[in-house]
Structure formats: structure tokens, C-alpha cells
Amino acid sequence: AQNVTVDEIMTAYKQACQKLNCKQIPKLLKQIQEFKDLAPRIDCLDLKGEKLDYKACEALEEIFKRVQFKIVDLEQTSLDEDGASALFDMIEYYESATHLNISFNKHIGTRGWQAAAHMMRKTNCLQYLDARNTPLLDHSAPFVARALRISSSLVVLHLENASLSGRPLMLLATALKMNMNLRELYLADNKLNGLQDSAQLGNLLKFNCYIQILDLRNNHILDSGLAYICEGLKEQRKGLVTLVLWNNQLTHTGMAYLGMTLPHTQSLETLNLGHNPIGNEGVRNLKNGLIGNRSVLRLGLASTKLTCEGAVAVAEFIAESPRLLRLDLRENEIKTGGLMALSLALKVNHSLLRLDLDREPKKESVKSFIETQKALLAEIQNGCKRNFILAKEKEEKEQKLQQSASMPEITVTEPLEEGPAEDGRDGSAASTPEEGEEAGETPMASENGDAEPAEDDDRGNVTDSDSDTDEEADAGLETKDLSETPKRPDSADSATAPQPLLSPEKLRDRPPPLRIAEELQRDADAGSPAASPASAPSQGNERRISVSSPGRGHKIFVVTRVESLPERAASAARSWEDADAAAKPAEPQSPAPATKPELPAPRTNGTVPESAAGSATAPAVPSAGSDPERGDPAACESAAHDTPLPNGLKTDFARALPEASSDGDGKMGSCAAEHELSCSKNEQELEELLLEASRDAGQEPL
What we know:
Blueprint: H1 6-20, H2 26-34, E1 42-46, H3 54-64, E2 69-73, H4 81-94, E3 99-101, H5 109-122, E4 128-130, H6 141-149, E5 156-158, H7 167-176, E6 184-186, H8 196-207, E7 213-215, H9 222-235, E8 242-244, H10 252-261, E9 270-272, H11 279-292, E10 298-300, H12 308-320, E11 326-328, H13 336-348, E12 354-356, H14 368-406, E13 409-413, H15 419-431, H16 467-484, H17 504-508, H18 516-526, E14 543-548, E15 555-559, H19 566-586, H20 633-642, H21 651-661, H22 666-679, H23 683-699
Parallel strand pairs: 1-2, 2-3, 3-4, 4-5, 5-6, 6-7, 7-8, 8-9, 9-10, 10-11, 11-12
Antiparallel strand pairs: 13-14, 14-15
Helix pairs in contact: 1-3, 3-4, 4-5, 5-6, 6-7, 7-8, 8-9, 9-10, 10-11, 11-12, 12-13, 13-14, 19-22
């Protein structure tokens, strides 16, 4: 309902109670009065322990009709078949809850479960269903199974102590093979046996790789059942993260199966084997499997009948493990020898953050050993603390790295600031990816992609970025970025003058391309023919933008803004002519290129790039065909041939001009070209230029 108020809800509920002749629930009235914001879902509707008969359930519709909740708690509400089916129908129709607790309702019967199954199937918002201690018997199970098979939105399902052993479990397991949404399945206290029930679970694990938590505590799985479950575990490539086998009468025989399976599991992070009589031999059987496994982070071995001998085997695993975070060894008879082994293992282990041991030292025949035990326990705790501090520091570094990775920092520097200083500052940013990685966070791969994938949350595996790739990042990428990166910084409001193309003779004797931006800067300052005179007037507007992003070289773009005033364009053209005259005697083949915004830099094969009309800036370096470092004369020559002349006689110009003239400032270029022709001081010189241009055009195929 739209725009309801708390008073309306109260009135409607009270009237419904009168009409149905049932008692109002004080606990409910109190909650309604405390409702604050009614628009989104309200946190909780708590009816735990209230007795709800059919009439009380019907009265609740006045509330469900008007507001929705995150949690609806109906634990121990003595629901009968009628009340349960009415409530579930309401919750389905009004999409009242995302979390529903119907635990400890022993009498909801077949019709109750049928309505619950219908609700599970039809509601898209129900994610969590808790039905602990609510028996799901043979005749009700098929409805629930069908609901789970037809893509239900449930993510968490609690069915502890729901009498599932036998046919109900078979139906559920078969249905869940198809289910892709369920992530957590809790089946504790169901008297599941080591034969048929375990075979069904093993089968489920073979086919379903979406369930992440499987809790089987307090059942009768036995070693025979563990063999079936291990068969299924071997098939899990991604999927099961937590397996709880607490109190299932497992022995050293079962540990042999598990030891053989562990090297194959890639997703299992938490394994709880507590309260099983595994013994020292069992831990020995498990040890090699654990060492061979690459995923387990938490291991529970509380009350598993271990002594010092077993603790030594566990210590060997700790010493080998680069990723174990938590280990529980409480309620075992681990004395001085075992504690010594664990203490030594912690000296070489840098990942273990928590090792649970009994606080009180065990009785020893030698009195002084009790003090030794206390000292060893303190040493072990200090080792864990040290690892914790290291992990915290690593995590902070990770976060800084993540931030800089997600948002490349952009700094606008002063026009004449020197590049190398910035480069030095950025050296640290470029080298930071060598720190550790964390689980769930994307590992920063080094430049050539040889980083190992990250293993887990508190352990970093160092990814060394090769030194030669760093140099590539500085040298190669610098040129590439300056020649290929953003073609138009922001040419919407003001026409942006092109970066000067270096004339071929300049290219030949040019130093390596590490600091092109600086080079241009210096040229511009010196006023050399290579720098476009058009950019000289705008020296004041010039900005450097340096972009640094982790694992990459430092790039510097020089952005030059030019007002699009005709006088300035004309004077630019005139001064260009003079520069041209100066450069001509030196090398007749290389008139430097025009600086019209609409003329793109031609590629070395003579074609004009398609982006002629769109991009208002030409790249700072000719395209990769003519490698400036090698100074290939032929390539440079052809670059010179293809460059359109200021007077526009080049054949390519005719193709580029119409597209360009559709641009906002299209007229400016043609005006400048006319201006050049009319204002040419030296007619003789102009004729020579025209002659040479026609000769060029004649030589070259279209």
C-alpha cells in the first residue's frame, strides 16, 4: 500500500482482531508503534514464541498488506496446518520477507509444507529459510524438492533436525543437483547414515558446484560415508568452500580417504573435523594431503584424541603451509613435546593468525615442565600476534594499491616543471605491485602478465615484475602513448592546435624517445623550425598532464590550447611561410607540415586517417611505421612526401577538406590557406613551391 502511516496499520490490525474475534498480540502492537520509515523494508517482525492460531494469522494480513520486512521470525509459534498455509500464502503474495524463520513448528503438516514450497517457488525475494526442528517427512518432501529444483531464489536453507534421513534426503539431493542459486545447506542432526544418505550427498557434490557451505555436523556419516563424500569432493573444481564434519564418528581410515582427496580440491577453505576420534594416526594420514592442498585456510581438530605425536605431525604441516590462517587444537592431550614442535613451526610460518590451544597446561610427571608449557603457550601466542601485525600492514598496503589501481591519479603540473623529477616521484607507485595480494581482490599482474594468482586473504605472494619490463614501460610505452593516446583533450569549446610533427631531418638526428614531451617543450622555447609557431603564442596556456597508474610507465602529455581567432591563424600561416623558406635550402624534399586543425597527420602509406573530421589534434610522432630511433631515411622521406602542403595542392587534401569543413571551425583553415596565397611576399618562392608540389603529386600513386 502507498503512503500508509503507523496509526493506519494499528487501526486496521485492531479492527481485524475484533472482526475475527481473536486476541491482539501486545508484542506486535509495541513493534508497530516503533516502526519508523515504512517505505523500504522494515528490519524485523518478531513473533517468536507467540502462539499463532488460524485467526491470529488471518489478522496479520492487515500488516503484511501494508508493509514489507527483511526478517519475519515465526520461531516456535505453534503453527498448525491452516495457520501455516494461510501465513505462507500471504508472505508469498505480498513478498513480505527476504528472511523467514519457521523453526520449531512441529505441526505445520503436509499442507503447511505445500504452501511453504509454493512460496519458495513463487517469491523472488525470499533468500533465507530457516526450518530447524520442523520435520520434513516423506509425504511433504516432494513439494519442497520440486520447489528447489525449479530455480528457487533461496540462497540459505537450514534443515537441521528435520528427520531427513532416507527418502526426503534422496528427493532433496536429487532436486539440488539442478539448483544454481543455493549457496548454504545446513543438514546437521538428521541421523544421516554412512550408506545411502552419504551416497546421495556425494552425488550432489559431483553435480552441484554452486553450494559453498555444507554443514553435516552430528550425523552418522562414518568412514564409509566419508568415502562417498570424498568422491564428490574430487569433482568440485569451484564451489564448496566450507565442509563441517564435526562429530560423525570418523577415524584414521576416513582420514586416509580425505588425505588422498585434499590435493584435488581447489575451493575448500574451511574443514572442520572436530569431535571425531581421528587420533595421531589419522592426522598422519591427513598431513601429506594438507601439504599438497592449496586452498585450506582454516582447520578444526578440536577434541580429536591427539597427543604430542599428533601435534608434531600438525606442526610439520604448519611449517610447510604458506596460507593457513586458523587452527583449532583444543581439548587434546598436547604436552611439552607437542607444544615445542608447534612453537618451532610458528617461527617459520608467517600466515597463521590464530592457534587455539587449551589455556591450562597439561599435567606432566616432571614438575618443571609445567612452567615450560606456560612459556611455550605464550611464545605461540606471540608468534600469532606477530603474523597478525604483518597481515594488517600488508592489508593496508593492499588497500592503498587498490585505490591507486582503481583511479589512476592525474596531476596537472606547472608548464615548465621538469619531467624527470616527477618520474622519480612515480617510481614508487610503479613498483608497489610487488607487494602481496589478498583473496577476493584482483591480483595486480606484472607488466608481461607473469604474476601468480593470489592465494588467500592474509598471505601475499610476491609477484616480481621483471626489471626489463619496467624499462620497456618507461621507454616503449612513452613513445607509444605520446603517439597514440587521446587525440582530442577537450576540443569542444576551443580549437586545439595540433602537436608539431617533427620534420624528417629533425627525426634523423633525434635522441631516443624517452622524454618527447620535454623535447617538444625545449623546441618550443627555442623557437626551432620543428616547433609549430602556432603553439608559440599560446605558451602561457600550455599545461602538462602527467598520468601515473600502477605497473605502467609515467606518461606526460603536453596540451596546448589556442584561441581560434582569424588574425592569429593568419599570422601563424605567415610565420609558417618564413619558417618554410628557412628550412627549404637545407633540404628541398622536406617542407614541414601545415598546422591546420582539420588536417590529420598522414600515415606513412599515404592514406589520411578516417578521424580527420573528428579529431582536432594530430599525434606528436609519425605512426609506428617510421621508427624514429632507427632513423630510416626511406620512411622519413615518404613521410615528407605525404605531408600536405600549406597551399593544399596535394590530392589527399581534396578528400580531407569536405569532411573537415563540416566541423565547427572548418572555415578557419581555408581562410588561412587563402590568406597565405594572397599575402605571399615572394611570388618566385611560391611558384617554386607549386612546381615542387605538382612534381610530388605526380610521383606518388593515389
